[in-house]
Specification:
The chain is an alpha+beta fold and 262 residues long. The protein has a single domain, classed as Clavaminate synthase-like (Double-stranded beta-helix, 4-Layer Sandwich). Helices cover 23% and strands 32% of the residues. The chain is built from five helices and 19 strands. Helix 3 packs across helix 4. The longest helix is centred in the C-terminal third of the chain and has 18 residues. The radius of gyration is 18 Å and the shape is globular. The protein starts with 16 loop residues before the first strand and ends with a strand. Keywords: Iron, Oxidoreductase. This is TauD/TfdA-like domain-containing protein. Pfam families: TauD (PF02668).
Length: 262
């Protein structure tokens, strides 16, 4: 088993890798401060229950909290690695003739609680996508131009999933909200627009983005979530993933929107 660090504060890491500070769940002010500074924070001391995620969202986001989406439980057994991604989906279901939104493309916070750590492996990693994209302006201008200037169908690869809207969700990987927040998306669902004359180039750039993301993952600092720990992420700014593991690992995931998503 990996020992948990007891350091509550960490200095911002050099480069795009993030090691979230660890904060006891009662210190909402410090948790908000670290989330604003680093884009991620780990809350310790919460009960290992689904309710703890709702409480954590209220504590960290506060009165800016607008919507919570249904909690998801994910259990993996001898799981393969999960690559860097930002939580994002567009899912509406019909319950008794009434539409209910279960996921939102503009979820700006994600909370992940470790309900059962893996016996071996399964460490988490996170990346400051703002820093990553800004760096591409120098290291890979073509990819930077694609991410900031090209429309894609964000969920077109998942078009056969029931509940997804029939109308394509068009957007760019890097955009800004009406109030000026930068959004940096990372989804495996992106495909070229229907009959896009530049479709071959879009597919090539999407593949290059995947390669760039996979290439940087080994260099990112790892951190372990112990039982009950809750990782809170600014979903507009940070991508997250985890290493492969042996044995069984279970997490609970809660996504939300705040007033800052407008």
């Amino acid at each position: 088993m990996h020992a948990s660090t007891q350091t509550r504060r960490t200095h911002p890491a050099s480069g795009p890798g993030i090691t979230p500070g660890r904060v006891p769940h009662g210190d909402a002010g410090e948790a908000r401060e670290l989330l604003a500074r680093d884009g991620a924070v780990v809350l310790t001391g919460h009960e290992n229950t689904p309710d703890a995620l709702v409480v954590a969202a209220a504590q960290v986001v506060g009165d800016r909290l607008r919507e919570l989406y249904p909690l998801r439980v994910r259990t993996s057994r001898s799981g393969s690695p999960v690559h860097l991604h930002a939580d994002s989906f567009d899912l509406v279901v019909d319950i008794g003739g009434v539409p209910h939104r279960r996921r939102h493309p503009d979820e700006d916070h994600v909370l992940v609680q470790c309900a059962r750590p893996a016996p071996e492996g399964g460490d988490s990693f996170a990346l400051d996508a703002y820093a990553f994209v800004d760096g591409l302006a120098t290291t890979d201008p073509a990819l930077h131009t694609f991410l900031t200037g090209t429309d894609v169908d964000l969920y077109g690869a998942w078009a056969d999933v029931r509940g997804l809207p029939a109308v394509p969700r068009i957007g760019r990987h890097v955009e800004f909200t009406r109030t000026g927040r930068r959004v940096v998306r990372r989804t495996d669902g992106a495909v070229p627009l229907h009959r896009d004359p530049d479709g071959d180039n879009v597919r090539a750039q999407l593949a290059r983005l995947t390669d760039a993301v996979h290439d940087i993952e080994p260099s990112l600092p790892r951190f372990r979530l112990d039982e009950g720990d809750i990782l809170v992420l600014d979903n507009y700014r940070c991508w997250h993933g985890r290493d492969g593991h042996t044995g069984e690992r279970t997490v609970r995931i809660l996504t939300s929107r705040s007033a800052d998503a407008d």
